[in-house]
Design goal:
By secondary structure, the chain is of the alpha/beta class. The chain folds into two domains: about 130 residues, Aspartate Aminotransferase, domain 1 (Alpha-Beta Complex); about 200 residues, Aspartate Aminotransferase, domain 2. About 40% of the residues lie in helices and about 15% in strands. It contains 15 helices and 13 strands. Strands 2-8-7-6-5-3-4 form a seven-stranded mixed beta sheet, sandwiched between helices. A four-stranded antiparallel beta sheet has the order 9-10-13-12. Strands 1-11 form a two-stranded parallel sheet. Helix 8 links the parallel strand 5 and strand 6. Helix 3 runs parallel beside helix 12 and helix 13 runs parallel beside helix 15. It is globular and about 55 Å long.
Length: about 350
């Protein structure tokens, strides 16, 4: 079972004796603007679809996704969130030793544990602003056959230049690179920065619809890889992995390209503005250092406070943020905050500043 996820809004609500809806959840990395306009109405109108079985192989949405991004359909496979593929890939790729670029999302390590596959971390550090030192990374690749990279990374929001990744992939054809691009749509010019069009046989890309469209409960993710790797995944692929409503949702989004492209652009601009305003509140103190990046979340390092105490104080104000002490490579000094609406961001910044100045 997964071991590294964050706070539970239902647990906090129970402790405070309030409803989950009363908690401001700034721990979840989804688009603060919510789904695109008209999308929820579409789901409501098509709710009847849950009375029928979905396509067993999700073939239609594989085609729709491929058409949207200009890919070959047989290089794309839809699943029950990217999580389904994260837990399959070490087995599918016949991995013998895995390297995980961290600190990062816990499920990459948990998937290795599930299959009994040895793994180790290549840790970036706060001193280097969590940037990857490619010379050091390459020196580790002789020891492994599979690498997990989240780009941009959760929780650091670090973005690796696409050219650096492509060069690394080319130079090491005997190593599989699993690149999780779940947060890339938050980044301006994201299509140019993506590896989706890369044809390398040793590259596997993960693409999530949960984050940018704010629909994590629908569980929609895609894996993009060579035909050979996709065929290997299919050997372990369960029929009806993607439910009827989720399949309808993908078709709707992928067939409204102009609307979706505009929505993504508006989201990117909104986050740039909100991120700037949020960080300005902390220019007056050195008690917290933020590592700003192009995503919907911001990692902060506390100077001499315990993240658990900060999170508990904010929870008392019915604000839930992410305590990062269970991220391998971080500590009790780190918190992560996901941006929400302007009013909530302003209020949360004020409350956080009050807390850290009082401890």
């Amino acid at each position: 079972m997964i071991s590294g996820h964050g706070g539970n809004i239902h647990e906090i609500a129970g402790r405070l004796r309030c409803l989950p809806a009363d908690i401001i959840d700034m721990s979840s990395n989804v688009n603060p603007l919510g789904p695109p306009g008209g999308f929820l109405d579409f789901l409501t109108e098509n709710l009847y679809m849950i009375t029928s079985l979905p396509e067993a192989n999700a073939g239609t949405i594989n085609h729709d996704f491929a058409a949207y991004y200009g890919l070959q359909t047989d290089t794309v496979l839809a699943g029950n969130g990217t999580t389904q593929f994260i837990y399959l890939l070490p087995k599918v790729l016949n991995s013998r030793k895995v390297l995980i670029v961290g600190p990062t999302y816990a499920d990459y390590a948990d998937s290795c544990r599930m299959h009994g596959i040895p793994f180790e971390f290549f840790m970036t550090t706060a001193a280097e602003k969590f940037q990857v030192d490619f010379n050091k990374l390459e020196s580790k690749l002789v020891e492994v056959d599979t690498v997990f990279i989240c780009n941009p990374n959760n929780p650091t929001s670090t973005l690796i230049p696409v050219q650096s990744l492509e060069n690394l992939i080319i130079r090491h054809p005997d190593v599989f690179f699993v690149v999780d691009e779940s947060y890339l749509p938050f980044v301006p010019d994201h299509n140019r920065l993506s590896l989706l069009k890369n044809q390398s046989d040793n590259l596997v890309i993960l693409n999530s619809m949960s984050k940018i469209f704010g629909i994590p409960g629908l569980r929609i993710g895609f894996v993009i890889a060579s035909q050979k790797i996709i065929q290997k995944i299919l050997a372990y692929y369960l029929p009806w992995s993607v439910n009827s409503l989720a399949q309808a949702a993908v078709s709707y989004l992928m067939n409204h390209k102009l609307t979706v492209d505009k929505f993504i652009q508006v989201s990117q601009t909104y986050l740039e503005i909100e991120r700037t305003h949020f960080l300005q509140n902390f220019a007056c103190t050195s008690r917290i250092l933020f590592f700003s990046g192009p995503t919907s979340f911001i990692l902060g390092k506390l100077s001499d406070m315990n993240a658990n105490e900060v999170c508990e104080r904010l929870a008392g104000e019915r604000i839930l943020i992410r305590n990062c002490d269970n991220f391998e490579g971080l500590s009790h000094r780190y918190i992560r905050i996901s941006l929400k609406t302007s009013d909530i961001n302003r209020m949360a910044a004020e409350k956080l500043l009050q807390v850290i100045m009082s401890l």
